[in-house]
Amino acid sequence: MKILNVEQIRQLDQATITYEPIAPIQLMERASQAFVDWFMSRYDAFTPVKVFCGLGNNGGDGLAIARLLLQANYIVEVFVVRYAPRESDDFAHNHRRLKLLINPHYVENPGDMPTLRQRDVVIDAILGSGISRPAEGLVKMVIERINRAPAQVISVDIASGLQANQPNQSDDVTIWPDHTVTFDLPKLALLLPGNARSVGEWHMVDIGLNQRFIDQAPTPYYYTTEAEARLLLRRRERFSNKGSFGHALLLVGSYGKIGAGVLAAKACLRSGVGLLTVQTPGCGYVVMQTAVPEAMCRPDVDDRLLTGPSDVDGPSLADYAAIGVGPGIGKAPETARFLREVLTNFSKPVVVDADALNLLSANKDLIGLLPENSILTPHPKEFERLTQRWQNDYDKLELLREFAQRQQVVVVLKGAHTAVALPNGEVHFNSTGNPGMSTGGTGDVLTGLLTALLAQGYDPVEAAVLGVFAHGMAGDKAAQVRGQIGLTASDVVESLHWAW
Ligand SMILES: NC(=O)C1=CN([C@@H]2O[C@H](COP(=O)(O)OP(=O)(O)OC[C@H]3O[C@@H](n4cnc5c(N)ncnc54)[C@H](OP(=O)(O)O)[C@@H]3O)[C@@H](O)[C@H]2O)[C@@H](O)CC1
Ligand SMILES: [K+]
Fold it and tell me: How does it assemble (predicted)?
């Protein structure tokens, strides 16, 4: 699904109005009804609802929402924040209609603010995607008062004060909602970690905007939906054998970190690989053979580190279908030498994670050896070591796109809404996963999983988008059983499920 910027959303609005055709006021009605349907599925009619409206179209939505809730017998009070003499036409229209039902309150100075209690639910329709400057004066005061109150807050379309696709200044005030209910398409701001407090949990409601316009609109930003991920998933042919799904090699572990290798190996096997060989330091041999009997194991001649040679024969490096390197390997110079050898002798895409990324950062010339379309899976700190510090999330996104394009690699920047940057400059944000997955080992699981997809012949771009989605989905499934707090990386492996 595409993520469009504010200007494109405005044009999309216009395209819908022109080509459907539909009157602007009816489009507002449709958006408000979609919000109300979402609201009524979660809150009953005994909920005291307080709707705060600005004077633009977001405020117009708020007035229409208030009317629709009143008609559904909800207890609703409306507060119009009169910060300017102007109001939009659709605001004025809905203002007139609402006044046939109730008299709104007008907030013109701090004394007009009501007391907000814990059981109140505030609907924030003060400012929407049309903001052109930071909230100040009366609007700022209202936002701060709402944020300080114990009431639940739900933002219409986007939290008031939050910019939809550009950075806010650190001292800008925005609503801190519990939920954001956004219309039709996700906005970039909703996906960025720095905005967590200004977004809350977000939800998308369909208001039927013009699909032809969306299809043609250029954008580097996408959001991976379940339907899209499903299209990438391949079925297994009936007449197939283990040779059809590739032989993968995982280079993992060091003394004290063999578990990372075990997790990667298990995830690789649970993700459809035909054959798996795991190379670990000598000390990992018995562990691996015991914990993962399905995998073959090549013990390194070094007992504690990965250095390359093994006294167990196996195919030469170049003959593996895919290689994944990094989980638990440490940063020893011997391991760096081995990594150099791997990158020099293997021409197919590799999956590079964890300490292998740190070795790339410490030996930047290794970056140039990465086979084209390799998949790098840094968390933000690892990505910063690979590149540089950034000022804000937008800056980080630009660095990410630039790195993926320049090096012609896929970069999976891990976090809430993991961002998958492609060699063509696109960024695909993931829609699955939960905070329970911020626990040791889940990254190792992703490495094994992605290596399995590459070994099966998936295109690296598709492997990354699909793999990140499936990994998050497994985390979500595990959280349903265990709850987020008790979730472990092993639970994620056991919850991997490739039929949806
Ligand atoms: N597109 C869609 O799909 C649909 C969109 N819909 C809805 O429309 C919303 C966008 O509406 P919008 O463009 O009227 O913007 P919105 O944010 O309500 O008001 C901005 C107004 O406030 C002003 N202003 C700006 N910054 C300010 C500040 N800091 N402090 C104070 N004032 C400030 C600015 O005027 P200015 O002073 O700049 O002339 C402008 O008049 C969108 O979020 C969604 O809810 C649905 O109804 C239908 C489908
Ligand atoms: K809002």
Answer: Homotetramer.
The span from the CA of 143 to the CA of 430, in Å, is 30
User: Residue 13 CA: which ligand 1 atom is closest?
Assistant: 1
Distance, CA of 291 to CA of 268 (rounded, Å): 14
pLDDT of 53 reads 98
Ligand 1 contact, 135 CB (< 6 A): yes
Residues of the chain short of pLDDT 50, as ranges, are none
Domain boundaries, the chain: 6-219, 228-495
- pLDDT at position 239 is 83
Among the atoms of ligand 1, which is closest to the Cα of residue 129?
43
Give residue 237's pLDDT. Answer: 83
Q: Could you read off the pLDDT of 256-310 as tens digits, one per residue?
A: 999 999 999 999 999 999 999 999 999 999 999 999 999 999 999 999 999 999 9
Q: Does residue 183 line the site of ligand 1, with CB under 6 A?
A: yes
Exposure pattern of 332-352 as b/e (b: 16+ CB <10 Å)?
beebbebbbebbeebebbbbb
User: What is the architecture, at CATH level 2, of domain 228-495?
Assistant: 3-Layer(aba) Sandwich (3.40)
Q: Which atom in ligand 1 lies closest to the alpha carbon of residue 59?
A: 18
The confidence score (pLDDT) of residue 139 equals 98
The span from the CA of 262 to the CA of 161, in Å, is 47
Q: CATH assignment of 6-219, given 3.40.50.10260, 3.30.230.10, 3.30.70.80, 3.30.470.20?
A: 3.40.50.10260
Neighbours of ion ligand 2 (CB under 5 A): 58, 124, 155-156, 160
**How remote is the C-alpha of 208 from its chain's centroid?**
23
